Structures are given as structure tokens and as C-alpha cells.
Amino acid sequence: MSDARLSVLKTYKLYVGGKFPRSESGRVYEVTDSKQSWLANAPLSSRKDARDAVVAARKAFGGWSGATAYNRGQILYRVAEMLEGRRDQYVREVAAAEGLSKSKAAEQVDAAIDRWVWYAGWTDKIAQVVGGGNPVAGPFFNLSSPEPTGVVAVLAPQESSFLGLVSVVAPVIATGNTAVVIASEKAPLPALSLGEVLATSDLPGGVVNILSGRTAEIAAPLAAHQDVNAIDLAGADEALAKELEIAAADNLKRVLRPQPVDDWAAAPGTDRMTAFLETKTVWHPTGSLGASGSAY
Amino acid sequence: MPTTAPHALSDVTASDSTLRRFLHGLPGVDAVGLEARAASLGTRSIKTTAKAYAIDLAISMVDLTTLEGADTPGKVRALGAKAVRPDPTDRSTPSTAAVCVYPDMVATAKEAVAGSTVKVASVATAFPAGRAPIAVKLADVREAVAAGADEIDMVIDRGAFLAGNYSKVYDEITAVKEACGTDARLKVIFETGELSTYDNIRRASWLGMLAGADFIKTSTGKVAVNATPANTLLMLEAVRDFRAQTGIQVGVKPAGGIRTSKDAIKFLVLVNETAGEDWLDNHWFRFGASSLLNDLLLQRQKLATGRYSGPDYVTVD
Amino acid sequence: MAPVFDYAPAPESRSVVDIAPSYGLFIDGEFTEAAGGKVFKTVSPSTEEVLSEVAEASEEDVDRAVRAARKAFEKWSALPGSERAKYLFRIARIIQERSRELAVLETLDNGKPIRETRDADLPLVAAHFFYYAGWADKLEHAGYGANPRPLGVAGQVIPWNFPLLMLAWKIAPALATGNTVVLKPAETTPLSALFFADICRQAGLPKGVVNIVTGDGRAGAALVAHPDVNKVAFTGSTAVGKEIARTVAGTRKKLTLELGGKGANIVFDDAPIDQAVEGIVNGIFFNQGQVCCAGSRLLVQESIHDELLDSLKRRLSTLRLGDPLDKNTDIGAINSAEQLARITSLAEQGEAEGAERWSPACELPENGFWFAPTLFTNVTQAHTIARDEIFGPVLSVLTFRTPDEAVAKANNTPYGLSAGIWTEKGSRILAVANKLRAGVIWSNTFNKFDPTSPFGGYKESGFGREGGRHGLEAYLDV
């Protein structure tokens, strides 16, 4: 009896604009572990929470996309450092959320932290890999560079509450986009905890915004939102994905359709970055050294 | 002092620094865009009646030129005769605008074209290098004018220009202009191939016009790159803009490198679509050329007869 | 006073092109009639003369074409890349050989000046095939994995403004990567695609690799919706692009869209002014302004507004409008009565909303579809003509005071295809280019195209890139 200390529970909150609000709706829903035991009351986000998150993401976009790639890399690496420090917490949360053994959960968390590190290193390399000079047939300098597409709505995978989440969020922000993330509906706690890490990692507020609740309810206004530039449907089932893709056509969002993922730990490649990049091509005359035509 | 009338820009020549500020404040020239525009105008297709008009106009704009160390009175007399009557077999062929010779040949040239509309132009100011003391240059000009030259083609001091000594160039032009008196018109040669950049050519054009040039002229014909469609287009823009600002019209003379009728017609298209029809007259536009004339004559014969002519049917001088 | 230097008519000869009185659909290597036997007429926009009658594809015909493409896919995709390359090189060469004929044809069917089809469209068409031909056997080096695979059958729908060039942009990368195609040219400009079918025949291209179905929007819709199409590529209006995006939602069809624009051409006070004037003219009057990346909004720094406008008006007065086949024509005909009506109505709205309208003195031919080059001054971002794509020779002139304001106004549109920057200051070009939300930025130039240079938009101007290494992605399973 003397050993049994009553633990202090955490009230899980949304992460929007660098702050931790409760849902504007004032509502929560019960989150349970795989054995249906109560874990927490998570905020049940409303349309207005989605709207606020988009405003925060848009506001953060200029600064984040305008930061140097080196700076973004430093901050993402800092996120990995903070995650490492909270490794045990995530192992507990993931084990509870996904019904995994401690060691299986640890594998997931380790893979997720390593993935942050991987993407942190990409920030200042992706432009060199997917951009470059184009040898046009004329006296012009012509350069194509990737640029972030803007505000990306991300439906995090439903099954992989942490590694899946990290695998879809990190590539979006590594390249300078800002994100509104809908956490796994039944296992949102690792995502909500991620907000706490991001808040202490020098990541500017609004770059990542995390909402929990009913995926379909939150995703609908995001897919239709005219100030959202792209949507990642990883966490949508077939019917929802189609409905959202139709709504997304209204302002021609870039849509990343859900693809079956057997193993989130597999090497991801660059696709999740390039899906949310625009190619900008700039032309400029070169001309000659002088009117007399330099012949060298 | 120069005799140019006061105009909207007269204050920019008040001092070395105002002149420099003005010239450096002129809009820049994008070389690729300028050359693309010149090339695009070069694709105009000038056929039938328009071609006949253009060929006669081009003939009337030729400053038929001989500027050789080996020039003799005989050579100059032959040139004068050709200028007056370019095609002895067809009296409807217009005379050229002028003959262009060295100062010591002015008197001979004057005699050769006497009684015609053909003017005598003389290069002066230590042509083509322009590297002589100012007194020598002015003496050169005065001799030519005294011998009856109607027009003086001076070269600017490119060294002074490239060194940024715009006042020196300006003062020289105004002094030469004064030496020309009221009768001789002054053409100012920039030697664009040596100024090298289009920005320099634009600045030189404005400098020349501010100093009282009656004509601005590309080149001496003695360097590697002479008149080109692009540098002539640029100078046509300058005379157009100068008249818009001051009301003063200045002529343009591309010289050197224009050898075919096709080329000449391209230049006339540049004139027509840049400065406009007010410049389509030999008072305002000239070709400094020698071999061009025979090609114009061949093309003229082709248009008149419908068959291709040959070099034996034009005079060789 | 000198007589005026009038250019005598210099018409390109029509006899270099032989247009048949009627054309069928090109399916599985054969010209065939439409299933219902329906036909439509294609006219010359500059004279309204009927050029030919063309089969109107029904849903059944589209299905036949897709099946032909599917059948051809197996062998075509299995060919070594080097063999596919040689077919494309052949096509590029034949286009070069027949470029005069094709230029005249395109001018007749589209209404654009021969100067443009001869000097821009056709050279770019050949260059595009030449460029992608070389990719066919180098795909493993393109950055899309060790063995990138084609998608299958590509359904491609193209517009009327650059009929043959848009065909090249679609077909060249599709074939290079091993896909087969069904292409639907625009209703008003079907002829050059049908001539291209003949080029495929001359090149010995296996039957079914390229299929051309002519018709109106219904044929396009049927193609896009066809369940056995793996890839949809569309160039055209944003409204139709959105409809297509909805149609393919929930399928596995890969989609690329190249849509409308409202490009800003930003002129700073230190611009190379004469070249800027040329760039403005080229930006909005090239192809009568019927260009998705047209610089239809001129943003001029207020301090040089008046002198720039004087220069621009003087320059517009030298534009030569008339017979598109005349080699000296700068401005040709509007492509269709429908498009002319749209331009006319938007221009009237511009006037009604208080913008000041100006056109140079210019006589419009009696027959055909014509619209004089038009400037609107005193335009603000609130005017319809500053927001809606006009797709015609109409320029809206707005002013700005600072670079920040220029960028804000340039980006203040749902579109994001193109923009222009004119300044002699290099750092300003880079700073402004960096902030503009547009896929193609021309600094101190405008409307330049090259097969190596990726082209495509941000935001509602569509997604995906055409041209360059980037253009391969749209046709690969990556």
C-alpha cells in the first residue's frame, strides 16, 4: 500500500499556433487502450478548431518556408533530441495505444525518432536532388527549384499512432510547408504528446498544428478549405478519401491518396516530400559580355 | 560655345557631375532582349512594291565611302560619278546621299559631284583612332570644311569615354561642332565595337546628342564589329527618345558591315518601326557603305526586269 | 516628306498544305468514321471559311480508342527504351521536314500569325520530341528509381491555343516513358493532331500507340472517365480542370493539370525600359493573349507609370493586325466566335467598372473573329479584368509603390502560373522571384519556352510539370 502512489494524470490538449487549447467545442471523447481501459479524455475538435489551425498554419508559413534550410534542419534535429528524452513516455503511450509489447513499442518509437533525424538531414538536400539548372536552347540562365506548396492538411494514419504519424508529418514540414494534422482517431495520445515536444523544440508556433477527434468531421472542412493547399489522405478509408478528394478539387489542392502501408518502418524514399513541393522555374537572360559579341 | 538651342535637357550638361549622373541614370539595356527585338524585326518580309521603294530609299541614303590609304584623285572622281549616277543604264536610279572621303580628298570630291544633290562628307578628328591633340583634330575639321565639306564625320575619344571622362568627350564634340560652323552637319562616330556594351552605346548616344550632334554614327568601319542591327536599333531608340524630350531630331548612320540589300532593308525596317517614318529620309538616316550600293543596284535591276542580274552589269570602282 | 514605308502583302503560300475535305478518328493506326457517323466542321478563324469536316467521337469511339491503346501498351512498354527513342527521333525529324506545311496548317486552323507558328510553335514541337526521345532509354537515370514503369494508357485532352505544341507536350513524354495514348484535340483546332497521325504513320509507329479522337467536351469527358485509363493529362480552363479532378477522385488515375493564369508582369523603375516594353507586348499579345501564362496584369511602379504607358502605346501602334498567313502580321484572329464573345464581354465589364480603355488605331477585317489589342489603365485589384482570366489581347495596368506591394499584388490571385520581373538590380530579381507564388518566372524576359524547362502552376493553375526531367514524373509509376 505504501508503494502505491496515485499518479498524476495529464489532460491532453490540442496543439494549435504553438499553444495548447482545449477544443473550442468544449467536448472530449474517451480514449481507451486495446483492452478498452480508459486512458484519457481527448479533445473532440470541431470545424472551428480546424479553421483556427489553418489560420495558425498560414500565419506560420511565411517564416517557416522563408527560414534557411539549414535552420529548418537544426530545428527538426532538435525535435529528435527532445523525442529521445521522452522515449520512455512514448513507448508507454504507443504500447497502450496499439496494444504492443514494450519491446515492440520501443521499436516503433526508435524508428520514429530515427525518422525525424533522417528528415532533419533532408532539409538542405532536397533542392539539390529535385531541382537544378536546365540547359535551354538560348541565351538564358534557367533554374528549377522546389518550393513548399503551403498549408498541408494531414490525416495521420489510423493504425500507426506514432511512427505513422511522424512518417507523414516530418516530410511535410522538412521542406517548409506548415501542417494541420488530424491524429489517429482511436489512438490520438502519442500525437497530442508530440505537440508538447514540438513546443519545446524551437519549432515556430503554427508550423505543426495537431487536432484530435473524429477524422471525417475534421477532415471535411479542411478538404474544402480554400486556404489549404494540399491534403494527405493517409488516414482516410476509401469512401472518405474519395469524398475528400472531390471536395479538394474546389481549389485544386494537391492530393496524396492513401496507399496501403505494410510496414511504416520501411525506408520511405522522397515521395512524401515531393508530393508537397512545387517546382518554380526562373529564367534570366545571360547575354554576351558586350555588344561586340565576345568570341573568347 | 555650342550653338545648340536651349532645350529641356540643357541643365544636365552644366557640370561634369550632372552629366555623369544623367548618363548613368539612363535606363539599362538588356542585351538579349535588344538583340531579340532586332532579330525579330529582321524577319519582316519586304516584297514587291515595298521592296522597290526600300531599295530606292536605301540607295538615296548611302554615304558612298572610300577611306583607304591608297585613295587617289582618280579613285575619288570615280566614286563621285558613281554617287551621282549609280546605274548609268537606268536614269531613274536615285543618287546616293553623299560621298565620304578623307579631308585631303574633299576638294576633289566636291568637283566630282558638282551640280548634283550629292553631298560631300569628310571624316575628320584624326580618323579612325581619334588619338591626336585637340588642336590637330580641330584643324583637321576646319580644313575639311574650308575645302567645301557639307558634312563632318568625327570620331569620339573612346579612351576618354571609357575612362569616364564624359566632359572631355562632350567638350570635344561641342568644339568640333563649332568648327563645323553653320553649314556643315556633324556626324559623331562612337566606334560602338570599342565601347563594347550596349549601356555604353546608349550613354554615348545621349552624350553626342546633348553636345549637338546632327547625326550619331556607329562605327568607322575599321574595327572588327561595326554596324549591327542591335546597336543601330539602340541608337534609333535614343534619337526617338531625345526628340520626345527636347524636340530636336537627330539622324542615325550605321556604318561598316552592311553589304547586302537584304541587310539594308532590315535596317530600314528598324527605322520604320522604332524611330518612325520621320527618319525615312536621307536627311535623317544614312548607310556608311561601299559595296552595298552595287548589291542594291543588282536587286533593283532584278525587280525591274524580273531576271537575276550579275556583277558585270553594275560598275566596279 | 517621304512616302510611308508600307509593307506589301507577303502571304505564306497555302498550297504547301493539302487539307482533305473530311477526316475520321485515328484509332489503332487507321482513320475510321465515328460510330454514329457524326461530323463537325472546323473553320479558319480569320475568314470563317470551312476547312474540313471532322468525325465527332462518341463514348463508344473513345472506348474503342482506349482499347486500342491498351492492346498496344503491352508491346510498346516492353520495347527497349532505345527502340522507343528511335521512333520519337523519327517523329521529331519528320516534324522538322514538314514544319512549313504544319505551320501553315496551324495558322489556318487556329488563326495565329504564321510568324508565330513558323518561329515558335513548330520549332518547339520538334524540339520537344527530340528532347524526350533521348530520355526513353535513360529513365533509370532520371531520379525516379532504378526501374521506373509506365502507367499504361494515358488519356490526354488539349486546348486550342497551341494545338500541336500541346500535343507534343503530352505525347512526347508519354511515349518516351512507355505509355500509349488517346489524345483529344480541341474542338476548334483538330487538324494538326490529325496530320500528326499521318506523321506517326510515316514514322512507322506501331498501331494503337497513338490514337486521336476528335470531338467536343463530351468526348473529353468520356476519355477522362474511362475506367481503363491510367493517366489523365489536361491543359485547359480551371473550371474544366476542377471537374476532371472530381471525376478522377477515388480512382487510381494519376492526374496532371495545366490550367489558367493571371500572370503579373512587374516593372520596376530601374527596368531596361525598351526591353520591358517588348516583354509586356510579348507577354500579352503573343498568340492574341490566348496563352495560359500570359502577362495579363501589368504591375508598374507608380514613379514610371506615365512614361512606360507612353512607350507602350507607341509600341502598340506599330503592331500589325490582319491576315495570319501574312509573314508581317503580328496579331492574328481570335480562335472562335465563342472566345471572341468572352473577351468582348469582359472588356465591356472593364469599362463598366470604370477602367480606362485604349486601343491603337487599327482596322479589323470584316470576316472572321478579331479583337484589337487593348489596354486598360486605372485598374485595381478589385476590377474583374484584374482577377478573371480573359484569354485575349487585353492588358490590365495596375501600379505599385514598393517591392513588397508588387509581390503582394502579384500573388493576390487564386492562380499561380507565371510572372515577370523587370529590373536591372540582380538582388531584387532574386528576392522577388523567391516570393512570387508562380511556377514559371521570367526575369527581364517573358513567354520563353524550352523542352528542358519544367512548366506548370501553383494553386489553381494546376499541378504537375511538363517539360524537363520533371515532366517524366507524370507518366511514371512513381
TrEMBL record, chain A:
Record keywords, A-Z: Oxidoreductase
Coiled-coil portions: none
Pfam families xrefs: Aldedh
Keyword check for rRNA processing: no
Superkingdom, natural source: Bacteria
Entry keyword annotation includes Oxidoreductase: yes
Domain Aldehyde dehydrogenase stretches: 25-255
SUPFAM superfamilies, A to Z: ALDH-like (SSF53720)
InterPro entries membership: Ald_DH/histidinol_DH, Ald_DH_N, Aldehyde_DH_dom
The protein's name in its UniProt record: Aldehyde dehydrogenase family protein
Automatic annotation (TrEMBL), chain B:
Lyase as UniProt keyword: yes
Keywords per UniProt: Lyase
Enzyme Commission number(s) of this protein: 4.1.2.4
Superkingdom of origin organism: Bacteria
Name this protein carries in UniProt: Deoxyribose-phosphate aldolase
TrEMBL record, chain C:
Location of the Aldehyde dehydrogenase domain: 32-477
Keywords: Oxidoreductase
Oxidoreductase recorded as keyword: yes
Protein name per its UniProtKB record: Aldehyde dehydrogenase family protein
